[in-house]
Amino acid sequence: MYNIVLFGPPGAGKGTQSEKLIAKYGFTHISTGDLFRKHLKEETPLGKLAQSYMDKGELVPDSVVISMVKEKLQSLENSKGCIFDGFPRTVPQAKALDALMEERKTPISVMIALEVPEDELRKRLLERGKTSGRTDDQDLEKINNRIRVYQEETKPVADYYHQQGKFVSIYGVGLIDDIFEKICEAIEKKK
Ligand code: AMP
Fold first, then answer.
1. In this predicted structure, what is the pLDDT of residue 49?
2. Separation of CA 104 and ligand 1 centre (Å)
3. Which residues of the chain are modeled with pLDDT < 70?
4. How far apart are CA 91 and CA 95, in angstroms?
5. What DSSP string describes 133-157?
6. Strand partners, 31
7. Which of 21, 43, 154, 178 could connect to 150 by a Cys-Cys bridge, CB 3.0–4.6 Å?
8. What is the Cα 185 distance to its own chain's centre?
9. In the structure, which protein residues have their CB atom closer than 6 angstroms to any atom of ligand 1?
10. Residues 53-84 as b or e (16 or more Cβ within 10 Å = b)
11. Domain limits, the chain
């Protein structure tokens, strides 16, 4: 089993590259943003709780995110591996994920970080906002807050995986297929 943390700021291309990785390797996609949006749509208590944080571009509290991921992992059967997309976003989340994966005897294999300059992120998110229906993609103030939260709270997660020798950085600007090829090379190297 091969487990990837696909890391990067909002708009780095994690969702796009996840889709391609799933098509090629058959991995299971675990996107905490998608899971929250599903809860929101279904108006579950968890969705209602997450909404106020998501609206502002703030992080949902760790305990809430971690228990949602735990539940998702428990529901998996015969997975070839997981792509964690948008999770972990804090060091406590990264530690909790390690503990969960240790219990399952399926540790994280690699963290792939997509590096994209901030101006490009803003441009991409506003463009996505025209069709995604996501209100957090349509407002520059919310976008800037998400980028700030990434810099302050999420970036330290890269150091956490660096210390474990699992960190790979890939420049995330260019043709989608070229970036995908680099991601696949990184995966094959760590296999
Ligand atoms: P995303 O689709 O990954 O951009 O996530 C959308 C929003 O969901 C974020 O701005 C957060 O409010 C929330 N969210 C998603 N994943 C996490 C996470 N791992 N920790 C905390 N909040 C999260």
1. 95
2. 24
3. none
4. 6
5. --GGGS-HHHHHHHHHHIIIIITHH
6. 85
7. 154
8. 20
9. 10, 32-33, 36, 53-54, 57-60, 65, 86-87, 89, 93, 136, 146
10. ebeebebbebebbbebbeebbeeeeebebbbb
11. 2-182
